[in-house]
Amino acid sequence: MYRDKSFIGIVPARAGSKGIPNKNIININGKPLIQYTIEEAKTSMYLDEILVSTDSHKIAEISKKCGANVPFLRPVELADDTAKTIDVIIHALEELNCLGKSYDYIVLLQPTQPLRKGWHIDDAIKKIIDDKHDDLVSVSEVSEHPILFRTIDQTGRLHNLLNVESTVRRQEFTKYYKVNGAIYINNIRKLSSNTSLNDNTLAYIMDKEYDLDIDEPNDIELLKINTK
């Protein structure tokens, strides 16, 4: 808890993955990917519970060994490529309610962001409460500035992504940030099936060194280097 508010950390980890088979439990430097997130979540001073939402008995067993709770399995219809994360969260909250558990805030921790630390989680929790906000999302400054991004039309002509003059010194570039997927926090009372987590409005800025999204095989090699 933090300032009398309770927090449930939910780690979504379905079995299916097209890019990297069994991605959430692939062994990296001696431990499954999901363990990186669970271990850091366990160091949080403010998370009241860490729950893994999965459709897989194998992921459930691994998660329990790592110290997370898995009191139920996710239904099949919430475990395919079309399932929305918000629906997974709502399902988990409904199941918890049936078990007599309720919380004030949901903290979503995707296992594909393994470099996020426990103190990041706590800093984000303090920020959303101290700023008296209902939703927060972690962001990182982008390395490649969108002022140099272009689209190409059917004739091969370039068009600026931003409607600004791009002949600007790099030192004068406006800072831009991307949603990095590491931390989402939402007031549970304000959640609905229409909630778009990526559109959470309060920013929690993380250094770029902690931003690594495991999406393709090369990302696994980067994680191996960063966790030796």
Automatic annotation (TrEMBL):
Key words, A-Z: Nucleotidyltransferase, Transferase
Hydrolase listed as a keyword: no
A Pfam family of this chain: CTP_transf_3
Cross-referenced InterPro entries: CMP-NeuNAc_synthase, Cytidylyl_trans, Nucleotide-diphossugar_trans
Classification via Gene3D superfamilies: Spore Coat Polysaccharide Biosynthesis Protein SpsA, Chain A
PANTHER family assigned to the protein according to its UniProt record, in alphabetical order: HAD SUPERFAMILY MEMBERS CMAS AND KDSC, N-ACYLNEURAMINATE CYTIDYLYLTRANSFERASE-RELATED
Name of the protein this chain belongs to: CMP-N,N'-diacetyllegionaminic acid synthase
Organism: Mesobacillus stamsii
EC number assigned by the record: 2.7.7.82
Coiled-coil ranges per UniProt: none
Enzyme class: transferase
GO MF entries: nucleotidyltransferase activity
Lineage: Bacteria, Bacillati, Bacillota, Bacilli, Bacillales
